[in-house]
Design brief:
It is a multi-pass membrane protein. GO terms for molecular function: ATP binding; phosphorelay sensor kinase activity. It catalyses: ATP + protein L-histidine = ADP + protein N-phospho-L-histidine. It is found in: Cell membrane. The protein is built from 11 helices and 13 strands. It has 504 residues and is α+β, with helices and mostly antiparallel strands. Among the domains are: 176 residues, no CATH class; 152 residues, Histidine kinase-like ATPase, C-terminal domain (Heat Shock Protein 90, 2-Layer Sandwich), CATH 3.30.565. The longest helix has 70 residues. The chain is rod-shaped, with a radius of gyration of 63 Å. About 2% of the residues have low confidence.
Length: 504
């Protein structure tokens, strides 16, 4: 990450801090000295006012001693860090004579101060390079450079009355040194502040960039359709709000994608179902055409034979007519079964659940086919006598039982025995129809439910089967959402189905 937010944040704050400190240094360097000078000028003026007040009060109050005045002056000078002189100038025949009222000076100090006072008194200031800063009717303030001691000063020269003057001196050089020290300190402090601030900013910035990187990782995971990762930090700031919003977004995206996948799955199923329907339609037409071709050909052939009087005897004509009627009946039964299958598969024949006795229903089907059992010498075993109630569509289940029984009769062999058996549990009843005969080849056992599929085509043609009966069973059981199946036994085949049982 060449220019990360953390890098830019730290760099921006460092530059801002550096610029701020540098600006403060420039302002300090350029404005501190003039400000201090102005402050000192104002202080000199205030000191003059206080000295004037002290001497006026002493003049009005004769009880004030010289010692008290000196003490007040000394305290004022110490507090203000100034050197003050109060004097009187007398003009005699010898010239100007200066008498100091405050403070007491030795000969050397006196000579130096007198010289300076006389320069101010005679206005000989130009020879010393004095710089006049301010002037009032009572005093003048100068900025000077004392070459003798190589130092700058601020000096006030003023009059308290006609004879009394005041001379105040304040060291200006110390202020310039203070400004220099201040600038130097500010430069060092600024460098230290930049270094320390940079370190602090680098550490503190992590508290901002870390959650941002975490949110970035969450966004990356979301782009990869991984919605398990969530933002867990408990923050009440903007980042916390963003994290909560991303969690909500993740949940909504997950839900939306789930809905899209479900819709896509349903669409795929619909497409596959449509393809399957088209394939089934094609297969159905092919199978129907094939199944109808033989009886139609027989009917056409025997009908032409009758028309052309191939056989004149009555017995032959009756045989021809019986064949035509038999084939027509087969076609009629096949069409009825196809119509019934179509009704069930299309949902046009809805399932009506009702409670009924399955034992009674099975017994009724067996009774209806009793004559056929006798004609084909089939032994039927059904041991149940007590009522067993189930929930299903009674008429559809009757058709399932009828198709199982018919299938068992048509494929019976060997001992020619059919057994109908009920197996009960608390929730279900399993009906099993078993017949003796040849087993179904294992490769064909799952195909028996397919429309028009025939394990033994020759035998199916013999009894007039269409291969639709078990397809009807499949459609009915699927509409009930119940299990069904077939298995080979030791001496035959067993077909079964299950129904919901009424708890008693």
């Amino acid at each position: 990450m060449k220019h990360s937010i953390r890098f830019r944040l730290v760099l921006t704050l460092i530059v801002s801090l550096t610029c701020t400190i540098f600006l403060c240094w420039i302002l300090n360097k350029s404005l501190l000295a003039p400000y201090y000078e102005k402050f000192k000028v104002e202080s000199l003026g205030k000191v003059y006012t206080e000295i004037d007040s002290i001497y006026k009060e002493s003049s009005e109050d004769n009880s004030t001693s010289t010692e008290e005045i000196s003490l007040a002056m000394e305290s004022l000078g110490a507090n203000k860090n100034m050197t003050m002189y109060v004097f009187q100038i007398e003009d005699d025949e010898l010239g100007l004579n200066i008498n100091f009222l405050y403070p007491a000076l030795d000969v050397f100090q006196r000579s130096q101060v007198v010289k300076q006072i006389l320069e101010y008194a005679t206005l000989e200031t130009d020879i010393r390079g004095h710089n006049l800063l301010t002037e009032t009717g009572e005093y003048r303030i100068y900025k000077i450079f004392d070459k003798r001691i190589n130092s700058h000063y601020l000096e006030l020269f003023g009059a308290l009355d006609e004879k009394t003057g005041v001379y105040i001196r304040s060291n200006y050089q110390s202020m310039l040194e203070s400004v220099s020290i201040s600038n130097q300190f500010l430069a060092y402090a600024g460098i230290a502040a930049v270094i320390l601030g940079s370190a602090i900013l680098f550490v503190v910035s992590r508290s901002f960039t870390k959650p941002i990187l975490e949110l970035s990782n969450i966004a990356t995971q979301m782009s990869n359709l991984n919605f398990d990762i969530k933002y867990c930090a408990d923050r009440e700031d903007e980042i916390g709000t963003l994290g909560k919003s991303m969690n909500v977004l993740s949940e909504k995206l997950e839900y939306t994608i789930s809905e899209l996948k479900s819709a896509n799955n349903e669409l795929q199923k619909d497409i596959e179902h449509k393809i399957q329907i088209d394939e089934m339609r094609t297969e159905f037409l092919s199978n129907v055409s094939h199944e109808l071709k033989t009886p139609i050909a027989l009917i056409q052939g025997y009908a032409e034979g009758l028309k052309e009087n191939i056989n004149d005897d009555e017995e032959s004509r009756n045989f021809y007519c019986d064949v035509i009627i038999d084939e027509a009946n087969k076609m009629n039964k096949m069409v009825k079964k196809l119509l019934s299958l179509n009704q069930i598969e299309s949902g046009k024949d809805p399932v009506t659940f009702e409670r009924f006795d399955i034992v009674s229903l099975i017994q009724s089907v067996l009774n209806a086919t009793e004559i056929m059992f006798q004609q084909q010498k089939i032994t039927v075993t059904f041991a149940e006598r007590e009522p067993i109630y189930v929930w299903a569509d009674e008429y559809m289940i009757e058709e399932v039982i009828t198709n199982y029984i018919s299938n068992a009769v048509n494929h019976i062999d060997g001992e020619r025995r059919i057994e109908v058996k009920l197996t009960k549990t608390n929730e279900l009843v399993r009906v099993t129809v078993t017949n003796t005969g040849k087993p179904i080849p294992e490769e064909d056992i799952d195909k028996v439910w397919i429309k028009f599929f025939k394990v033994d085509k020759a035998r199916t043609r013999e009894y007039g089967g269409s291969g639709i009966g078990l397809s009807i069973v499949k459609a009915i059981m699927d509409s009930h959402n119940r299990e069904y199946g077939v298995r080979n036994t030791d001496d035959g085949v067993a077909f079964w189905f299950e129904l919901d049982r009424k708890n008693e």
